[in-house]
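Lab intake sheet, docking and co-folding queue.

SAMPLE TYPE: protein with bound small molecule
LIGAND NAME: flavin-adenine dinucleotide
LIGAND FORMAT: SMILES
REQUESTED OUTPUT: full 3D complex as structure tokens
PRIORITY: normal
SUBMITTED BY: R.K., bench team

The fields below were copied directly from the construct record.
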Amino acid sequence: MPDIEKNTTYYDIAIIGGGIQGVGVAQAAAAAGYSVAVFEQTAIASATSSKSSKLIHGGLRYLESGQFKLVRKSLLERERLIKLAPGLVKPVAFYIPIYKQTSRPAWQIGIGLFLYRILGSFKKYTQFKRIRVSKRKMLPIKGLLSNDLKTVYQYYDAQTDDRLLTQAVMHSAQSLGAILYCPAKVTQLDFKEGCYHIQTKGMSSVPDVIAATFVVNVSGPWANDVLARITGTPVETMEYDLVQGTHIVLDAAAPEGVIYVEAPEDQRAVFIMPWKNKTLVGTTEKVYTGDPARVTATEGEIEYLKKIYSYYMPQQKVNVTDTFAGVRVLPKLESSLFSRPRDTLLHDSAKNLLTLYGGKLTSYRATAEQVLAKIETQLPARKPGKKKSTRNIHLV
Ligand SMILES: Cc1cc2nc3c(=O)[nH]c(=O)nc-3n(C[C@H](O)[C@H](O)[C@H](O)COP(=O)(O)OP(=O)(O)OC[C@H]3O[C@@H](n4cnc5c(N)ncnc54)[C@H](O)[C@@H]3O)c2cc1C
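RESULT FIELD (auto-filled):
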């Protein structure tokens, strides 16, 4: 521990942000024997981590943009989370209907699914099949558009409740000794005498003086806003776009699995999913420039998603009961939003401070392991004998 004043509450690691990435790092660091504090300005999972598509998946569509490493990591994590959190992460059947007008031919989907199986090491939920559609045979999904339907592929991924998963990981971190300050917005990080002195706003019971040797900035869409609050050491930032994604909830009987369709308008991949006995449809992708806390579904996005649903489920009524929107953090590149890397970027932003940009809900645990391996040499010695791996910690 650095030489610090007596009235200072000291932690080895301060984590800014209580989304899935923040609580994941908190769990891994506490399990490894470090003293850890998480600062969350609103509530655990209040931002992107409760606005996702709620899929724990390899990401079949990332194969198209060549992100094989991410797909493999995510498939292995999917397998692990199904075992570690069976009450929270559940396998679900996915259906890809191929019509005469579908832009990706059946053989291409078949090759993609075979590659998905290879990258998932042929484990339990990597099997897939092609269901040939005939007039006499029932469609695998009730109410699915049958005109010009040629074939349907069926494979597996998993679904979760993203908010509950994030809360469960936070509880696990707390049971391992992590401290949560919430609501506590970090307003200043002053680097002096080898550690960060942290100031917060929002919670009366936060100690007056808090210091930490290392800071992990996992504030998602606010990453560069947090970096702008650092004094006492040079700071480097990475440029990124915020990309809004909206979902609509329909008061329609939940489909028997996730239907993975192609938007007729622009051939984007969209999911029609069962969600709490209703139907969830998403998502969209458009650059967002406002305050991340104020992102909401636009009329245009709602209409776009409603149109896709009624195209593929022509007999169902379209009654929207809820909408939600979140923002992804994608590196600023020339390429299309679709093809930008979706893996987490670990960025050395300042002395003893690491920023996580982007990433997936699915791979939070592996990312946290990567973070610890990267920062270990910059941390103080751990409490002796206290070392656990999150690979074996069950979540409830
Ligand atoms: C539309 C959409 C769909 C997605 N679908 C999937 C999916 O199906 N599967 C999947 O694996 N991934 C999915 N993702 C990606 C996944 O949701 C995100 O990668 C993940 O939730 C990001 O988590 P995070 O912890 O980085 O950020 P967040 O969840 O946004 O957390 C950041 C936290 O930091 C806090 N914070 C910010 N500033 C401060 C401060 N100064 N002081 C204290 N706290 C602060 C915020 O309040 C917030 O709670 C999706 C993303 C989007 C946008």
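REVIEWER NOTE: Residues 9-48+163-239+341-381 form a domain with the FAD/NAD(P)-binding domain fold (CATH 3.50.50.60).
SIGN-OFF: pending second check by T.M.
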